[in-house]
Design goal:
The chain has three helices and four strands. It is α+β, with helices and mostly antiparallel strands and 119 residues long. The chain has one domain.
Length: 119
């Protein structure tokens, strides 16, 4: 499963050099339960923590077809992540690293997991 986010030209500086070529950021998701175990005709809610700049993305979610090297894409439309929740300050180039942002968010989420189980 993947999440693909296209960005507006004025936000390209948040992307790596490779991502700028397609004007998009790609996140690979591994939901629990895995997609192949989802029951038909039922709703499944998954949570995934992703690193993303606080900008608007035109999001699409893709369901990978094993053996076909393709994905069925579902358009989610434009989502402004900056408007959803306050985020720790992040310079445009910080989101290119593979390390998590330096903030209390990981500690906060860890504490919530301990109190409430899996997020």
């Amino acid at each position: 499963m993947c999440l693909l986010g296209y960005v507006k030209e004025q936000h390209l500086y948040y992307l790596s050099e490779e991502e700028r070529k397609s004007q998009s950021k790609l996140w690979w998701l591994e939901p629990i339960p895995p997609v192949h175990d989802w029951p038909a005709d039922e709703y499944i809610m998954i949570t995934e923590i992703i690193e993303a700049a606080p900008i608007a993305y035109n999001l699409k979610v893709g369901f990978y077809n094993p053996g076909e090297n393709s994905a069925d894409m579902v358009d989610l439309g434009w989502v402004d992540l900056a408007a959803l929740a306050p985020a720790p300050s992040m310079s445009p180039r910080e989101n290119i690293t593979t390390s998590p942002p330096k903030s209390n968010i990981n500690e906060d989420l860890h504490g919530q997991r301990q109190q409430h189980g899996r997020l």
